[in-house]
Write a structure and sequence with these properties.
Strand content: under 5%
Number of helices: 4
Radius of gyration: 12 Å
Helix content: 55-70%
Order of helices and strands: HHHH
Number of strands: 0
Amino acid sequence: HSTSRRQRQMCIETGYNLKSLAVNGDDIKAFGIAEGKEIKSSLDFLLNGVIEGKCQNRKDVLLEYLKENTK
């Protein structure tokens, strides 16, 4: 898909990737999201937020950003 292609390009340009995020799958589980697919999409959402400058790559900031943007 084009979204993942765009995300890959942004990762290359910014140096950010899922491994460089200040949160990981365990943090997302502790946040209350249990499904594997939802965890991955939450991590992708946070990565995009960092890449696009919408939030800082800090655990507290990322979890607050996720909280503000989830139902």
